[in-house]
Amino acid sequence: MKLLGAVLLAASLLGTAARGEQSPWPDDPSRTCFFQMLSGVDGEFCRGDLEIIYPELGDVGCAYIPKCHQYRRRISREWGSPRVRYPQAEKSKKYVLVLVDPDAPSRANPRNRFWRHWLVTDIPGADLRTGNVKGLVLTDYVRPTPPPRSGYHRYQLRLYEQPAHEAIALSPEERVSLGAWAMESFVEQFQLGSPVASTQFLTKYYED
Question: What is the pLDDT of residue 165?
């Protein structure tokens, strides 16, 4: 459905240009905005219909953030935390949300993997079903900010079912730094298991 939506959007924009009507992107009227979906290994990461929703863009899961309309700059400099929606969430359960960049400082040299961008625990399933992330924030949302000339970065959102009566916390050492976070050890320590759903989007420095 996402692929179909991208195709329909591109087709409608091309049709607008062909009719000579005003472009929906006045800051760059010559550019048609295509939402390219991920494929291959990057596409396979997306599973479980987890939605990550930003203003104007909608659900960016399993997609590249387009440069047109300054979307890459706005996601890095303007927009706050996205809505996260998981329609399959069970109302009686709680969940843990993790957003990381595994490509810090670059995908070719990820020596600071994983860079923690958001960590929330104790999220009620009922809230996830409506896209409301309310829980215990262990790491405040940090906007995606890929360094210049570092290529595309993956921003991976993982959703875990939280074990009942499990109190989850970061260690004092983990709280000191966002980078080089041992995410796998954190998942193992609190017995989170495999994600019930995951998605990602790719973006790069907005002037590259």
Answer: 84
